[in-house]
Design brief:
With 300 residues, the protein is an alpha/beta fold. Helices cover 40% and strands 25% of the residues.
Length: 300
């Protein structure tokens, strides 16, 4: 069985589209179809159903997928054991992270790791979405909840807190906010409900009875910038808000505690380049642990 054909099959299975698999592998659509067809011919069975909306695995394809992933794992382990690329800490490691943690914590720190390992390419995807490790969308994922399924290895990075913030200019313009009822009629800067990808991101239970207007931003970065600009009141990460002197933490009795988890797939966690990046992230979080939980919210 040709590994190159299996690699094509894995990409199609994970992307759900032959065209998307072609883009990911840097090949043309015809090459993908030809090699996938060759694999099917060698096995004497159809592996993928071609549809107008994409591609779906047949029962035989589903059975092959588990074997193909094990072969891929062995290939990665072999690269780790004897491949010069991995021994030299060269190659690419992609990190998927919530946009708040990725933008306000990881992005300013990863340059030091890149400088230390000149042949290592670090890709950071700080996006308001979840990432699939089994589909190899990322090598390392920072999640808001511990995964409960799959061959995933998770360790807790840290707890963190969030509080209610407004800008000094906003408070000077609209008046102080000393109690929850004072938020009535104001603009609450919040998330877009149908784009929330984790229950851990639902912070607004405390405000549901208020008759307040909403400015909805899908990303943490968007919410931060709106509050900084004086658009309204929002719930922000304490470790990010503390770096902006124009922000004031109000209503200290309202605080939220959440957690970050670092997750890798069992097949890649022993790759030296992945392990190096993982250890770096853990070390940076441990060094900054005091920033993640606000003193006023420590008992929340």
């Amino acid at each position: 069985m040709d590994w190159d054909h299996l690699r094509i099959f894995l990409a199609v299975a994970r992307e759900g589209q032959m065209l998307a698999a072609a883009r990911k592998l840097g090949l043309d659509h015809a090459t993908i179809g030809r090699r996938l067809g060759a694999l099917e011919a060698s096995l004497g069975t159809r592996l993928v159903e071609r549809r107008t909306t994409g591609s779906a695995l047949t029962p035989a394809g589903e059975r092959l997928l588990a074997h193909a992933e094990r072969i891929e794992s062995e290939m990665l382990q072999a690269q780790s054991a004897i491949g010069n690329v991995d021994l030299a800490l060269a190659g690419t490691v992609r990190i998927g992270a919530p946009d708040g943690f990725g933008t306000y914590f990881l992005a300013p720190r990863l340059g030091a790791l890149a400088e230390r390992h000149r042949e290592l390419t670090i890709q950071l995807a700080p996006l308001p979405r979840s990432f699939s490790l089994p589909k190899r969308e990322v090598d390392i994922a920072i999640t808001l909840q511990r995964p409960s399924e799959g061959r995933l290895i998770a360790r807790k990075l840290t707890d963190y807190t969030l509080g209610v913030y407004a800008s000094r200019d906003y408070l000077a313009r609209t008046g102080p906010i000393a109690h929850l009822a004072a938020l009535a009629g104001r603009i609450l800067v919040t998330y877009v409900p149908d784009l929330v990808y984790s229950p851990a991101l639902d912070y607004f239970e405390a405000f549901r009875e208020l008759e307040a207007r909403r400015l909805e931003c899908a990303s943490v970065v968007g919410q931060m910038e709106a509050v900084r600009a004086g658009a309204g009141v929002g719930i922000l990460h304490d470790y990010a808000a503390e770096t902006h002197g124009e922000l004031v933490r109000i209503l200290p009795e309202i605080a939220f505690r959440r957690s970050y988890w670092l997750v890798t797939h069992a097949d890649v966690r022993d790759l030296r380049r992945v392990a190096e990046v993982e250890d770096f992230i853990v070390g940076e979080v441990q060094a900054a642990r005091g920033r993640f939980v606000a003193a006023k919210a420590a008992a929340a």
